[in-house]
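User
Class, as today's exercise, I want you to study this protein, comparing sequence with structure tokens, and judge whether sequence predicts the tokens.
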Amino acid sequence: MEIFESPETHPDHAQGAGAHGQHDEREHSHGEGRHGHQASLGDALDFVNTLEYDKGSPDEHLTDVPTAVLWLQEHALLHREMVGPLLERYTGEDEDTLLQRIRRLRGALRELLDATVDERPPEGPALREVNRALRAQYLIELVPASDGVSLDHRHEGDPISGAMARLAEAVARELTQGESKRMRICANDECRWVFRDFSPAGRRKWCDMSTCGNRAKAARHRERQKAKDAPESADLSDSPAPTEAAEMPASTGSALNTGPTEVRH
């Protein structure tokens, strides 16, 4: 699978749900879901949200390669027995290079999701980064299962590249074959949590009504209160200033002739 660039494209946000509550289980049952180490949509969105925002400040969950590798294993994208050898392989400069590669794909997937929500073409570099991840060599094959068969994969290259390819594929399938109009970015600009809207009406705006939703309601209440108080302040400022006290009338004594009194004989 590859996402093709449009001629109009540019030339060149706890590890799980964290403070945003539990994800809808339907996010983790999309397509093949977790069978055969295939990434679900929920896995891919969890991956994007490993760079979380708290009141606008970034909170990085993939702080180093061991943390990132364990994250992939905990999301059933790496076999447990691979963790030790992978951590031994990536040390020193190789560790920094791998961590940058993982974060770069995460940023590219975020750009694709942002572009989908904004109804615009994604930036060219992000599209190329996702396409590069999708080209990782891993083979999908059928294997026996207790109820028939299931899909599994066989590594032909770096297991981490294969895990990243499956995360990219989950997003690519949703944006091209799923209900892309259900993708959401939390309306709180200081949060920007990515999620899929499973509400019946499809009008969900917040990652979590108890956090970002309530904050928005409180902010709207404060704005309404300000607007209500503003006319009262304006009325007070428009009131005429008190006039100066009227001049007192001249004293009757001031009208008397104070010169010498003429004595008539």
Notes: The chain is about 40% helix and 10% strand.
